[in-house]
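Check out a protein:
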Amino acid sequence: MRTVLFKKLWLVLPLLFLGTGLFAQDAAEVSFNVELSKEKLGINERLRIKFSMNKDGDNFIPPDFSGFQVVMGPSQSISSSWINGKRSFSKSYSYIVKPKNQGSFTIGQATIEIGGKVYKTRAKTVTVTAAVANPNAPKSANDVADENLHLIAEVSKANPYLNEAVTVVYKLYISPDISVTNFRPVGSPKYNNFWNQDIPVTKYNTVNGTYNGKPYRSVILKRVVLYPQKTGKLEIEPLSLEVYVDVPTNRRDFFGGKIYTQASKTVSAGKRSLNVKALPEAGKPANFSGAVGEFDFSVTTTKTALNASESLQAKVEVSGKGNLKLFQLPEPDLPSALEVYEPEFDEKIRTTASGMQGKVSNNYTIVPSYRGKYPIPSISFTYFNPKTGKYSALNSEEIMVDVMEGPESEGAGTNIVAGNQKITIPTGKQFHFIKVKPNLTSMASSNFFGSNKFYALLFGPLLLIPLLILVVRKREKDAQNVEGNRLRKANRLARKYLSTAKKELGNETNFYIALEKALHNYLKAKLKIETSDFSKEKIVGLLNDKNVDSGIVEEFISLLKNCEMARYSPFTDVQMQNDYEKASETISKMDKQL
């Protein structure tokens, strides 16, 4: 009885497995695809086109192969196998065609009927070039790398405003058929006519995606934020990389795995163009200094009540998102009775994919000399908002500083003008008492006449006359020395503009940023030009029009070039010191001629 039962089971089990395999095959998703031996070929080469499916079908209709001549086909191939109780099936129709002409041709859709439904392949594009030297030769590793590796520059905005942030992201697209082992930059873009800031890529993360309709992996290699400094059509220089890849061959190792060969490929992102729009003239404020973005503005003081000879700090601060390093902060207009020192510039800025964010400020040290109330008038800051396409103005609140104790001004009780306002300084002593019992002594009891004090007072003024004559002549001589006066004034001006750069000596990045800003601010102050005109050719033309010596112009342009080079190559402390001294000397010489 048991023997008969086992025999029946052995007969039923294969049928169960067969039924399970057929059910899995029926449940599998239908696929109907087309494969090309190559997508780019010479006119003297041949192309193999294969239509494959994973289920048997009927009524196969091929495309018309427009632009090609069918040399062979269709050849049909069917394969079926059982692996671990599962059945796999494939069927294909293959054609060998040759192109009739050069150009770009489309392999149309093929159709087949499977299970009562009609399925179609995707259309494919083939490029036919001129005849090749070795037709139908197998592709080399470099050919495979060339077809499966692409470097693309993605630009955030194609039509930005002047000084508006533009982000450029360089992505490398890699086909799943190859793998990248290493890469190195061949040449870095110079970004002429742009202020630029790199955003370091600390980790290379691979993301799955598509490129030209095919599955690819992509990785971000470089990110940079650009601020255009000139209007019109500007070109972004291409980034080029030498990439080392592993390419599979048609050979197999002992265990059946693919054997790979290494190839190197130089890829370039190609040039990209931007159409930079000028800032509108309509509604442009008179005090606009080139700020573009979205900002907040504030003026604060550390004290509002203090004694004379004590100091307070006044901070003029702009915060937000925009070209924070490329404009001048507004300056306060303070009463003359307040002694104001040169401001200390401070910045806390970070650069993200959307541009610069943070804040910049000028910190003024103010020391009042006399007792009274002094106003720090309202200050206006204007900027252009590229999102709204309009100018905006921000005004600070007026701050009143109360100096409680200290000496009285010689003009006590009179009005002190601060901006457009007048304010009266109260002395606190409007009434004085007359002393009715003075302590006087008789001159008769003293031996003043004939004493040393008597002769000193008598002849002292006579002795001062030659000294006064020498002082007057010295002043006249100095007044006639126009060149010397101009040179001294120019030296003071150079120290003013280069004060921030001097503080950053030893810090290469901050020093050259401060030096470049000082040179630009000097030109803006002297030549009355906007930031948009800061191209080297424009600067040379303006200085030549002002009859500035060509040697001085060359020194100035060479300093600007050093500021740009500092972003890409290291500079020593000695070079920074030399550039600082050269900048001071060049500004002095130029100011004397201007």
